[in-house]
Amino acid sequence: MRFDSLIDSVGHTPLVGLPRLSPSPDVRVWAKLEDRNPTGSVKDRPALWMVEQAEKDGLLTPGCTILEPTSGNTGISLAMSARLKGYKLICVMPENTSEERRQLLRMWGAEIISSPAAGGSNEAVRVAKRLAAENPSWVMLYQYGNPANWRAHYESTGPEILEDLPSVTHFVAGLGTTGTLMGVGRYLREHVPGVQIVAAEPRYGELVYGLRNVDEGFIPEIYDAEVLTTRFSVTSADALRRTRELLHTEGIFAGVSTGCALHAALGLAAKAVKAGERADIVFIVADGGWKYLSTGAYEGTLDEAEGRLEGQLWA
Amino acid sequence: MAIEVRIPTILRTYTDGAKAVTADGATLSDLIVDLEARHPGLRERIVDDSGLRRFVNIYLNDEDVRFLGGLDTPVADGDTVTVLPAVAGGMR
User: Fold this and answer.
1) Residues A13, A38: contact at Cβ < 8 Å?
2) Average pLDDT value over all residues in chain A
3) What is the pLDDT of residues A111-159, one digit of tens each?
4) Which residues of A are catalytic?
5) Same fold? A7-36+157-301, A44-140
6) End-to-end C-alpha distance for chain A, whole angstroms
7) A214/B45 Cβ within 8 A
């Protein structure tokens, strides 16, 4: 495949079958390898769409500064786009994110502002909103509320899945900004009658929820519950176990959030087998495992790995 | 037999610090009434006049009850109910 530039090569990722993890020839599980994007994650799609929409709208002009609350992949994708297109990037990220992410962001030239660990991404969003108000010339693309986020998946990820697997019955992805689920979900619902759109939501350790006040939660503006069939909460223990299972049985080295989606996908597969129904279940491999090596997710026993992940944002 | 209810840190002031408590009921709504009898004050932190509070998520055996039957969702012995505050995604 030939492309005019790195940016033009975003998307067109492989959809691979999981012959060992699929329970039967009638119930098959498929991995959409989003780690094969230019900066190694699914976020290259929304980052590019958001930047190009802001350019079309006249918000972004050469030399502009982009501000974004992101604890990793979106920042890395934006940093690549910003570098190639001549923008400056400032990322607001929780201080309890892995060192690899910080190095990657700095490498592409982004500036990092840390937000308190205890608040998680909620706090990063709050800090970014405050900074945006204080610096009106900065452009916040704001992935949690930007329709270009889900449109990236509506216009690229969704059509790619349907073209590769017209018999798709279920789509599973991790729930963060909700962009992947909203975009792919809307597209597939328009083209596949009865398709199930299932969210796998990471359930973090105590520390992440510790200081959350139930009156001050956060729901991304682009989230529309109508698009989803259902939503599962997946513990870090289950996500870790599935991440390793994927590596050991199918050879796919993925990040921990992929284990979260796989756990939900295998749950749906077991349900289909029990009901005697045919199923083609697609789940998203959001990124590779490289950025999580320092978290210790792949070494020692599961209990040890879970202990090390406690208090970290792993998806 | 009873239903296990996992309580988030922020609400453990109502459960003497317990991470998980038990309660009974045929539906989630009944269960919350029983929870209130055992741990006064807990109910209004979970539900308000319009139903489940906006930033509170409840999972029945790990599935979001908003996609099941909401507060009318049937519950049974051996089920696990998890209460969690809504948070933004992690590494986005």
Assistant:
1) no
2) 91
3) 999 998 877 777 888 899 999 999 999 999 999 999 999 999 999 999 9
4) 43, 257
5) yes
6) 31
7) yes
Q: Are A45 and A157 in contact (CB under 8 A)?
A: yes
Of B14, B73, B79, whose CA–CA distance to B46 is shortest? B14
> What tens digit of pLDDT does each residue of A276-315 get?
999 999 999 999 999 888 888 888 888 888 877 776 666 5
Q: Is residue B92 part of a domain?
A: no
What is the C-alpha to C-alpha distance for residues B32 and B30, in angstroms, rounded to an integer? 5
Q: What is the CATH number of domain A7-36+157-301?
A: 3.40.50.1100
| Number of domains within chain B | 1
Lowest mean pLDDT among A32-36, A117-121, A124-128, A236-240: A117-121
Report domain extents, chain A.
7-36+157-301, 44-140
Q: Is the residue at B90 inside a domain? A: no
Residue B72 resides in a domain: yes
- Which residues from B are below 8 Å from A228, CB to CB? 67
Q: Which residues of A touch B92 (CB under 8 A)?
A: 43, 70-74, 121, 143-144, 176-177
Measured at the CA of B53, the angle between CA B84 and CA A144, to 5 degrees, comes to: 70
Q: How far apart are CA A89 and CA A68, in angstroms?
A: 8
How many whole angstroms separate alpha carbon A7 and alpha carbon A20? 34
Of A97, A121, A143, nearest to B87 by CB-CB distance is A121
Task: Determine the residue of chain A that is closest to B82 in CA distance.
Answer: A233
In the 3-class helix/strand/coil scheme, how is A41-97 assigned residue by residue? ECCHHHHHHHHHHHHHCCCCCCCCEEEEECCCHHHHHHHHHHHHHCCEEEEEEECCC
CATH number at residue B17: 3.10.20.30
- Its domain, for residue B44, covers 3-85
Residues 6 or more apart from A186 whose CB is under 8 A from it?
A150, A154, A158, A227
**Is B91 part of a structural domain of the chain?**
no
Domain A44-140 CATH class label: alpha beta
